[in-house]
Design goal:
The protein has one domain (about 5-245): Vaccinia Virus protein VP39 (Rossmann fold, 3-Layer(aba) Sandwich). Helix content is about 45%, strand content about 15%. The chain has helices spanning about 5-20, 20-35, 55-70, 80-95, 110-115, 135-140, 160-170, 205-215, 225-230; strands spanning about 45, 50, 70-75, 100-105, 125, 150-155, 180, 220-225, 240-245. The strands form 2 sheets. A 7-stranded mixed β-sheet has the order 5-4-3-6-7-9-8, sandwiched between helices. It has a two-stranded antiparallel sheet with strand order 1-2. It is globular. The relative contact order is 0.15.
Length: about 240
């Protein structure tokens, strides 16, 4: 075993051990509960745009994108566009690929900022409900001749909406790529934790419940437990689904 392989094996062993360390997991859970209440994810930008993500999830996505080098990334939920810019910049470094973002309401001030950004050259935006069959058909046009496709879901977080997204967008995901479901953390937080926001989702009705229904019916996808064990601090526990067949 050479030094590179030795380091990789040590890392894998450490990640596996961390995943069973109850003290570390408890500390991470406490941080997640407190930090979500303080709107921690709103503190960060990427290349000037608010990204509204935890840095740990950003690193996980960077690792996935660098590893699989997708020809296309599909993202539902645009908000300020930080994730679009983030993914586009990684594709720029790789030297290929584009990202298609879907949102039911692309606000004009956000659209202008995204369109004026240097990374916009790799971005397409579609306005409309992500579960509208006409919108999905529009997205499908961008998948033609694309070998490797990655999908991330980060729009409406109710069970029914996310489950519909999972069913509609999972066929686009290529073998050994990922279908990433954000905000599964909702299931693991107290009902009163979401900064006082009134939302139509909560415990028992959220991305995590939708994901588990989907995985139970679709054995071609499995939860990548190594990412769970690696991150611990994440808004997407169990949310990194790998297509295995």
């Amino acid at each position: 075993m050479n030094e590179i392989e030795k380091f990789k094996k040590e890392k894998e062993d450490s990640i596996l051990l961390q995943g069973s360390d109850e003290q570390v997991k408890s500390a991470a859970a406490s941080f997640m509960e407190a930090s979500i209440k303080s709107r921690y994810s709103y503190n960060f930008t990427w290349m000037g745009r608010p990204i509204i993500q935890y840095p740990q999830d950003m690193i996980a996505m960077q690792e996935i994108i660098w590893d699989i080098k997708p020809d296309l990334i599909i993202e539902t939920g645009i908000a300020h566009g930080g994730s679009l810019i983030f993914y586009a910049s990684l594709l720029e470094l790789i030297g290929k690929g584009e990202i298609v973002g879907v949102d039911i309401d692309i606000r004009e001030h956000n659209r202008k900022e995204i369109e004026n950004h240097p990374m916009f050259k790799r971005i397409k935006m579609i306005q409309g409900s992500s579960i509208d069959p006409a919108i999905v058909a529009e997205v499908a046009k961008h998948t033609k001749d694309k070998k490797t496709i990655l999908v991330t879901l980060d729009s409406n977080h109710t069970h029914d909406h996310v489950l519909a997204e999972l069913k509609m967008y999972s066929p686009f995901v290529s073998l050994n790529s990922y279908l990433v479901v954000y905000d599964t953390i909702v299931e693991k937080l107290p009902e009163d934790n979401l900064s006082g926001d009134v939302r139509p989702w909560g415990i028992g009705d959220n991305p995590w419940t939708a994901l588990n229904t989907f995985v139970g019916e679709n054995p071609q996808f499995e939860i990548d437990q190594s990412i769970n064990n690696k991150l611990l601090i994440s808004v997407a526990p169990d949310g990194y689904l790998k297509r295995i067949k």
